[in-house]
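Weekly sync, protein design subgroup
Attendees: M.S., D.O., the rotation student, P.L. (late)

Item 1: inverse folding check
M.S. brought a backbone from last month's batch and wanted to see whether the design step gives back something sensible before we order anything. D.O. pointed out we never logged the input encoding, so this time it goes straight into the notes. Structure tokens as presented (345 positions):
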């Protein structure tokens, strides 16, 4: 449990992200946490690099109900301070915390607070002995590192853990997570680390995270993108919806061709923006012509099949109204609002 969020044991897959605001600016952190939460993020991670940041973490913790994870590297004192400040989970790499005694102190603090520890294994910080043994950060090396940390936690009589194996290489991540899932039932946090920009990172994350989730591997996810983390949440939600692991609006649009006589791309983009904050499972089709349009639109809850600078609106497979292109968005909006209101009642 991360505050009131269950991870693992067939609970819904949990979307996480990490703030990129200054760890010393409480107001800025709170602003971004609120943005992430409204976008659909369930758990937010904050870096805590030193004791000043730990004090700010404490202030933030008191002012938001969103589950917070303290991200710790090197400084065990920061981990303990964050736990004492009310962290709902701490993320550590035991290999860079220091001596076994220091890891034990973090574990003891987490146990006393009744919170989990996420153990992070990254290809960029793998133990030198394993790199030498396997010739690099291979799936086997990453998995052995993870199993070693699980064994360490077992020795410390602590089993309230989540494990993450991440690499910037998609296949390495997939194969490492597969290996780990064969050897332990510890809940897994999955993602592609340092995946890149919105364009490239979204594709890598969809392939990597999507493959694992389709195989039943992964209990909580983060889509790592350079820039505003709010964009990560939209990508994560689409990955989950595409696998029927989360309900919500789905907008489909045809790829357009020479037959298309309405601006499908612009209309579909505006429809996506329109339904971004809707939580009901509504399928909307924006189709450009009469070849496949009517069939696809009929399959949707609400759809439009384009004609010559006009569109035929379908609702639950039935033709509703024909309107000029300039009125399509407003007309779709009216039917979407009506569908949503009826669904909630």
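Designed sequence read out in the meeting:
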């Amino acid at each position: 449990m991360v505050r009131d969020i269950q991870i693992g044991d067939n609970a819904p897959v949990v979307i996480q992200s990490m703030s990129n605001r200054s760890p010393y600016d409480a107001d800025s952190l709170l602003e971004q946490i609120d943005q992430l939460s409204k976008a659909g993020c369930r758990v937010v991670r904050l870096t805590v690099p030193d004791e000043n940041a730990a004090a700010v973490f404490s202030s933030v913790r008191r002012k938001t109900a969103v589950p917070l994870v303290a991200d710790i590297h090197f400084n065990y004192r920061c981990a303990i301070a964050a736990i004492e400040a009310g962290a709902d989970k701490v993320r550590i790499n035991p290999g860079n915390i220091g001596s076994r005694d220091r890891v034990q102190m973090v574990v003891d603090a987490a146990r006393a607070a009744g919170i989990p520890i996420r153990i992070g294994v990254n290809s960029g910080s793998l133990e030198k002995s394993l790199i030498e043994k396997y010739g690099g950060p291979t799936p086997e090396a990453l998995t052995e590192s993870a199993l070693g940390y699980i064994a360490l936690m077992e020795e410390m009589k602590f089993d309230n853990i989540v494990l993450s194996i991440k690499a910037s290489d998609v296949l390495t991540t997939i194969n490492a997570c597969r290996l780990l899932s064969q050897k332990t039932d510890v809940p897994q946090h999955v993602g592609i680390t340092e995946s890149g920009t919105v364009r490239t990172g979204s594709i890598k994350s969809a392939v990597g995270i999507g493959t694992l989730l389709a195989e039943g591997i992964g209990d909580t996810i983060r889509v790592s993108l350079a820039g505003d983390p709010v964009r990560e949440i939209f990508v994560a939600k689409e990955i989950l919806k595409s696998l029927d692991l989360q309900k919500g609006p789905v907008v489909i649009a045809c790829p357009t061709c020479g037959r298309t006589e309405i601006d499908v791309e612009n209309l579909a983009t505006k429809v996506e923006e329109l339904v971004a904050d809707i939580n009901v499972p509504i399928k909307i089709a924006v189709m450009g012509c009469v070849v496949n349009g009517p069939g696809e639109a009929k399959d949707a809850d609400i759809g439009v099949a384009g004609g010559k600078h006009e569109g035929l609106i379908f609702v639950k497979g039935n033709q509703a109204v024909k309107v000029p292109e300039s009125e399509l968005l407003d007309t779709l909006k009216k039917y979407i609002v009506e569908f949503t209101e009826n669904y909630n009642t």
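Discussion: Residues 211 and 322 are 41 Å apart (CA to CA). Residues 14-242 form a domain with the TIM Barrel fold (CATH 3.20.20.20).
Action: P.L. to compare against the previous round before Friday.
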